[in-house]
Design brief:
- A hairpin with a 6-residue loop joins strand 3 and strand 4 (59-72).
- Helix content is 20%, strand content 32%.
- It has one domain (3-148): ph1033 like domains (ph1033 like fold), CATH 3.10.590.
- It is of the alpha+beta class.
- The chain binds a DNA duplex through residues 7, 9, 31-33, 53-55, 58, 112, 129-134.
DNA sequence: GCCAACGTTGGC
DNA sequence: GCCAACGTTGGC
């Protein structure tokens, strides 16, 4: 069992959107490091901290879990998609995604500022300046610490 | 809107 | 393989 933090802009896809759909493909990731985590390291049932980024109140908004492991991201083949990649082919896909399932929406977002104030979370990439990677592994200790911050 | 901190691209 | 230019992310 692994633990992850996945960022999403709530204007594009929020924890409420996931709650409404129950399950959703995590498409549109176009960064090799993040892709590799999805393709090589994510296992069925892994737990995800759902992080809201680029918004008024950035922070962890809830929990999800992996409900389907790596498969090609169909948006790379779709010319009408913002995520279209002309270098990707059906025979040799470049981008992969997982499917995530809703677990929980927190009553209140655990804000980035709150996370920054916890000494045990100082290694979390998201609290560091200039951290842009949208998918990050989280240690079990960190995950458990974060759950204690729920209201 | 600003800007620091990256990641990617492409000429050489 | 180097590196300048460019594009993107994301907090503020």
């Amino acid at each position: 069992m692994n633990f992850w933090l996945m960022k999403s802009e709530p204007d594009v896809f929020s924890i409420k959107n996931l709650k409404a759909k129950n399950k959703s493909g995590w498409d549109g990731v176009r960064n090799y490091q993040a892709r590799n985590f999805m393709r090589d390291n994510m296992k069925l049932g892994d737990l995800i901290l759902f992080y809201h980024s680029s918004c008024d109140n950035p922070g962890i908004a809830g929990l999800a879990k992996i409900s389907r492991t790596s498969h090609p991201d169909p948006t790379q083949f779709d010319k009408k998609s913002n995520y279209y990649d002309p270098k990707a082919t059906l025979d040799n896909p470049r981008w992969f995604m997982v499917e995530v399932e809703f677990v929980e929406e927190f009553d209140q977002i655990i804000s980035l500022q709150t996370l920054k104030n916890i000494k045990e979370l100082s290694d979390l990439p998201v609290v560091k300046k200039g951290s842009r990677l949208s998918i990050n592994p989280v240690k079990e200790k960190e995950y458990n610490k974060i759950l204690t911050l729920k209201y």
